[in-house]
Amino acid sequence: MKRRRQALGPLWLRLVMFLGGSLCMGMAVAVAVQWVVTGSVGDIREWFEKWPTYLLLTGVLCGAVVFTLGALLGRLWLSAVLVGAVGLVLALVDYFKTTINGTPLELADFGLATQLGDVAGVAGTLRPPEDFWRALIALAICAGLLFLVRRLTVFTGRVRFLTFSISLALTVGLFSAPGAQAVGEVFQVDVNTRLDAANSHDTYGLILSLWRASCLQAKESPEGYSEAYMQEVLARIDELLTEDSGSTDSGTPTEETAVRPNVIMVLSESFYDLTELPDLQFERDPLENFHALESESISGTFHSHYLGYGTGYLEMSMLYGITGLDFGPGTNICFLEDDAYDKLDSLAEQYTKGGGYTAEMLHGYDNSLYNRTVTYPLMGFSQLLFSADIQELGFPWEGSLYGGYYMKDSYLFQGVLNQMEAINDSGDRAFLYAITMENHQPFNPDKFDYACQIDVTSDTLGEEDMAIVRVMLEGITRADQALGELTNALRDSPEPTIVVYFGDHRPNLFMTDGETVYTKLGLCPSNDTVDWTLEEVNDLYSTDYLIWANDAALLQGQAGTRRDSSITAIGPQLLALTGQPISRYWALLEKVSQVCLTNIDRYFVDGQGVPSASAEEADLSDEARELLRLREDVIYDALYGRQYITDAMNEPVQQP
């Protein structure tokens, strides 16, 4: 027979104990999470002294969940264990993410929650910090105390039901937009202003920062949004686009661009010109192929929007023309509703829908990350080839397929050439998007069996740190050599081909003491991007790119020129070169790219590469601001609104 738990004391006392125990446990969870995140109780004290209401509100939020779950389970101590465990897991994930790429946990990252094991698999060995175990012990003690007084926190029958019902309603209210507005006002928390994750976490702490992001309003509609309003937007877009109808930048075919080339886009993992790092002396040029090709290419700084991670997000921005700023806070642009990727035609579809092109993706890893098996087919790719698929192609190859944990870039490029030949033999031109992996983290000293083809020295870094630098050097050297092999093969090909080659982001290379190579070499003051100047962000959130062709005429006289580009500018730049009869949407993006290379939560970069904190603070002309507004209106209409002009935006630019 089940033994009924016996309550101790009058109801009012048990209510007080239940409420007090919940709030105390909530504060304990709040402190424990920040303990793991910051690694210092002293930092928590300083944070509390600076913003006391933020820690208090964090404790209230956690306490509300403890109270509600405790009423549901009938055991406050068990609720405390569960909430404490969830809090510590969040803190640990934030710690690991910061360790991997220097950026804190964001609400958008929860889109990858089901792929956590795969993410960890490409990150290397991850160990909890000592403060995690200390925080765990502290929370265990708090939960143990609640267990000892459990008879003073027992509710039964109608009282328990009413307690749970009321607490559930109040807790849900705390996590709603109206509730957040009211609570934010009481605790002096701004729940209206959108902040990048680093600044938000630094100010509000992990839990409160995630809470803010979940309660911020979704993307607002344009003022006066209606069918008539959007028809006016369409008319203005047509007016602006037809102004450029006579130029090659408009996407209108000319005699010079009448040849339809193959297009190979290469996202080179963590590639950038490391010879520009100060205090590193190289035996010889590790980017000899890249640097030699620059004289034959359009090249320059590539504003990647990321540092140390974000490859999948970068792909969506490049191929679909969107960024996280186009959505409500916390939206993962790789995990939108499936039909969202069908609303606007992608970069690949500018080639495939016009006929004569076949689009394929090749990736040197498996299909586990970033929802690619869903998004790429929706964006017009007829075939996706991952590591195992590429190995089944059966093209001639000698030697190992793998280098440094992942598929060799040179082997992947052989697969690219194989697919280009097969598509050309079928009578089509190829649009190929290749994603390399050989230079992917982790950068453990033994990654390439301690091999490094080029000697490097430093007056600043010690030998243990230099062992990590040599891993980065070897990976980039191999990427450069594979690029040379690819372009040499294309020189011998009779098929006209354009190669777009870029680094997705710099590696966030951590040294033995936890600092990054960039901090050690004086490029930024600390790992915390909150402390960085806009110029430092702009520098470290960029890599290098080039657009090369095996026939210089395909570059329309621009070979050897320098031009800043970015994730959202490179697609329109390519379309202008190939002279595709592109859609209004991509023609508009081309005009926008002339005034905006980067526009994300973290910062804004104008068409000349000048950074600002945001578009609002940038020194932009009225014409530039109008272009940004028109783009926002089109995106809202397609992805949030009634699609009044979406079909028209997917149609070719109307010529006068």
Radius of gyration: 27 Å
Can you summarize the main beta sheet?
8 strands, mixed
3D shape:
globular
SS elements, strand count: 15
Structural class: alpha/beta
Low-confidence segments, given as residue ranges, are 247-256
* Average pLDDT score: 90
SS element count, helices? 25
InterPro entries: Alkaline_phosphatase_core_sf, OpgB/LTA_synthase_biosynth, Sulfatase_N
Pathway: Cell wall biogenesis; lipoteichoic acid biosynthesis
Organism: Candidatus Oscillibacter excrementigallinarum
Main location: membrane
Write up what this structure looks like.
With 656 residues, the chain is α/β, with parallel strands linked by helices. The chain is 47% helix and 10% strand. It contains 25 helices and 15 strands. The protein has helices at 11-38, 41-50, 52-73, 76-101, 116-121, 130-148, 157-174, 177-186, 197-204, 206-215, 227-243, 288-294, 311-320, 340-343, 347-352, 372-378, 387-391, 409-425, 463-491, 517-520, 534-540, 570-578, 584-593, 622-639, 646-649; strands at residues 262-268, 281-282, 298-303, 357-363, 383-385, 402-403, 406-407, 429-435, 456-457, 497-503, 542-549, 565-566, 596-599, 604-606, 611-612. The protein has an eight-stranded mixed β-sheet with strand order 5-4-8-1-10-11-3-12, with helices on both faces. The protein has a three-stranded antiparallel β-sheet with strand order 13-14-15. It has a two-stranded antiparallel sheet with strand order 2-9. β14 and β15 form a beta hairpin. α1 runs antiparallel to α6 (130-148), α3 (52-73) runs antiparallel to α7 (157-174) and α22 (570-578) crosses α23 (584-593). The radius of gyration is 27 Å and the shape is globular. The relative contact order is 0.13. Residues 247-256 have low confidence and may be disordered. This is LTA synthase family protein. Residues 261-578 form the Sulfatase N-terminal domain.
